[in-house]
Each structure stands twice: as C-alpha cells, then as structure tokens.
Amino acid sequence: EAAGNSALGVTVAWLWQQRNESEISTHFFQRVREEGDRPIVEDHQRILDAIRARDPQASREAMCDHLQRVIDHLISVFDWDSRGKAS
Q1: pTM of the predicted model, to two decimals?
Q2: Cα–Cα distance for residue pair 7/14, rounded to 1 Å
Q3: Is residue 2 a contact partner of residue 51, using CB atoms and an 8 Å limit?
C-alpha cells in the first residue's frame, strides 16, 4: 500500500494469509518467541523510509539486508535434519 502498487498489496496480503495458516510457520514463530526474539524495528523503519522516499535502490537494499538477517537468524535458531526439516 505504501508503494501505491495494488498488485504488491494483494500479494503481500496473500503471503501473510499463507504464513498464518502454515503449520511450519506456526512452529517457526513459536520457537522464535521461545527464544525471546523480537522483530528488528530499525530494519522495518529503514524499509518504510526508503519506500516513502520513492527510492527503489534504497528500498531493495533495505529489504535485502533485512531478509538476510532474518534468514541468518532462522538458521541459527533451528536445527535442520538431513531432509531440510526443522527439528
């Protein structure tokens, strides 16, 4: 919505719905809460600021940086078995 892109808005809404209905996502977020982790507010603010500034390069960089931190964190929190499933 902030980007003024209705296709993006619909896609994001669908992704949130999938996340909320996903068993593995529920397990992930339960583990994250147990670990006491909180969202990186500064990352989210940087993304929002770049979108508001209509700066596509800064938006992309902010989102990529954020997603890399999330991925790194999830890998560190979960033990993965040989089939790629969280234990």
Answers
A1: 0.56
A2: 11
A3: yes
